[in-house]
Amino acid sequence: QEPISLLCGSDCLADIAKAPKVKTASGLEYRDIVKGTGVSPAPGFPVCFHVIAQLPNGMVFMDTVEKGGSPIDAKIGNRSIAPVGLEEGLTTMQVGGVRRIYCPGELSYTSIPSAAGAFQPPAFPGTPVIFDVQLLLVPGAEAEDEDFKFRF
């Protein structure tokens, strides 16, 4: 059973089920809820995104929308985005896109420490995680982002 998507609202649940599921060579799977029209992030670029993370049983353990609307700022390729499956899923998105990412255990959180300050969930290493992600900005890659103040 598909967990409830809190990022796009209950009205889009039927759309998620209808969206084709893409599987990458690494085993990551995703469904695009809304296709973005902006740039895709490249290694070394910062990204700004909202994320709701849940375990396969539906328990939400991270929600940037509910915590006051503060998105996550991180950089692609320097291990500041944990787990690696979330970063992989972000790199093929375009700004404005909303995606459900199915992160298998081997691409999920591990016992290997991430960069300082990277979030670690209340789950055992190797637990599959489902992420609903909205890519908001790729500062520096878009002309209108010139005044964006990147927050680490």
What does this structure look like?
With 152 residues, the protein is mainly β. Helix content is 9%, strand content 26%. It has helices at residues 13-18, 84-91, and strands at residues 22-23, 29-34, 46-54, 60-63, 72-75, 98-103, 129-137. It is globular.
Number of helical runs?
2
Helix/strand order: HEEEEEHEE
Largest sheet: 7 strands, antiparallel
Rough outline: globular
Beta content: 25-35%
**Rg value:** 15 Å
Helix content: under 10%
Tell how many strands the DSSP assignment holds.
Answer: 7
Task: Present the secondary structure layout.
Layout: H1 13-18, E1 22-23, E2 29-34, E3 46-54, E4 60-63, E5 72-75, H2 84-91, E6 98-103, E7 129-137
Antiparallel strand pairs: 1-2, 2-6, 3-4, 3-5, 3-7, 6-7
Which key terms come to mind for this protein?
152 residues, mainly beta, seven-stranded antiparallel sheet, 2 helices, 9% helix, globular
Quick summary of this structure?
The protein is mainly beta and 152 residues long. It has helices spanning 13-18, 84-91, and strands at 22-23, 29-34, 46-54, 60-63, 72-75, 98-103, 129-137.
